[in-house]
Design goal:
With 167 residues, the chain is an alpha+beta fold. It has a single domain, classed as ACT domain (Alpha-Beta Plaits). It is 33% helix and 36% strand. It has five helices and nine strands. Strands 1, 2, 3, 4, 5, 6, 7, 8 and 9 form a nine-stranded antiparallel β-sheet that branches. A hairpin with a 3-residue loop joins strand 5 and strand 6. Helix 1 runs antiparallel to helix 3. The longest helix has 18 residues. It is globular, with a radius of gyration of 15 Å. The mean pLDDT is 95.
Amino acid sequence: MSVMAFVGALYKDEECFDSALKMLKDLFGDTLYESLPTIWRYSDYYNEELGSPLKRRFIFFKRQISQDALPEIKKDVMSIEAKLSKDGKRTINLDPGYMTLSKVVLSTRKDYSHRVCIGNGLFAEVTLIYSRKSGFEPTRFTYPDYRSPETLALFNKMRETLKGLLT
């Protein structure tokens, strides 16, 4: 089944984001939608590595992918992070995932009780679940920024786009 690929980016420097975006386009092809940058205020977890203030953006891609491509995509995206690193620290955090009409799935290197291994030390989690009543809803473990009304609205909008592409 084909799904819509996206990448969530956390970064400080716009030039770094532009470089990452170029590499992501080389990997995925043209973008379908790029969100505007917003200030990320949810924790200071990444500040030491990435700096601050951090910005959050989401990039959705035109070319659909297979769900089982996620482990390979995560490795490719980690390679982009490594290429843009300075002094052994990442300058951007890129988290690829995919969206179906019923869920949003994120990939990560961090294991936890609600995540499943997808191979080679990589994990995935369902972070948003679609409800006919209210659209995408967070799970108990959903990251705070994915719970925000703005992010939920964005994923609901992109779900409608995906729905149109699938018909």
